[in-house]
Specification:
This protein is an alpha+beta fold. It has four helices and ten strands. About 25% of the residues lie in helices and about 30% in strands. A hairpin with a 3-residue loop joins strand 8 and strand 9. Helix 3 runs antiparallel to helix 4. The radius of gyration is 15 Å and the shape is globular.
């Protein structure tokens, strides 16, 4: 019997090179992933950097996919896409060509080296919550609450939806 797909949400971000083109191209790369089907992707958003402040603004989005397989295999595929876009992991919150974060993988909860689900900081960041609320407004994040309520809590963070 074939495994049933789960809905996975992926945050995309970039602030080096041409980040608008990069994020759009990364969404196209997600569409081509084996074992996954892109359901929808949010608009693009321009956001202030978090952590290291002296760097360019980010372009962010969130995509929803139906995935057959494990969270670990899906995360490995996301890392391969990042590498294809020249991602080099250096300092935490450093500028990057592309960042793909696995936010949610169905109802899976996990706290393990290399992967925590739901993503440990998703409830704190407007650059995740605004695009997530756009594509899944009724979503309730286990352990955190309704996405709209979470977004209201980060209203002070600078974020702009691109046309």
């Amino acid at each position: 019997m074939a495994a049933l797909p789960v809905t996975a949400y992926v945050a995309l971000g970039a602030n080096l090179g041409d980040p608008v083109t990069t994020v759009r191209s990364a969404i196209a790369a997600l569409r081509e992933l084996a074992g996954a089907r892109l359901v929808t992707a949010s608009s693009l958003y321009r956001t202030a950097p978090v952590g290291l402040a002296n760097q360019p603004d980010f372009i962010n989005a969130v995509a929803a996919l139906e995935v057959v397989g494990s969270a670990d295999d899906f995360l490995a595929a996301l890392f391969a896409i990042e590498a294809g876009f020249g991602r080099v992991r250096s300092l935490k919150n450093a500028p990057r060509t592309l960042d793909l974060d696995l936010l949610l993988f169905g109802a899976e909860r996990r706290a393990a080296p290399g992967l925590t689900l739901p993503h440990p900081r998703l409830a704190e960041r407007a650059f995740v919550l605004a695009p997530l609320a756009e594509i899944a407004p009724a979503l309730i994040i286990d352990g955190h609450g309704h996405v709209a309520d979470l977004l209201a809590r980060v209203a002070g963070q600078r974020i702009e939806r691109l046309p």
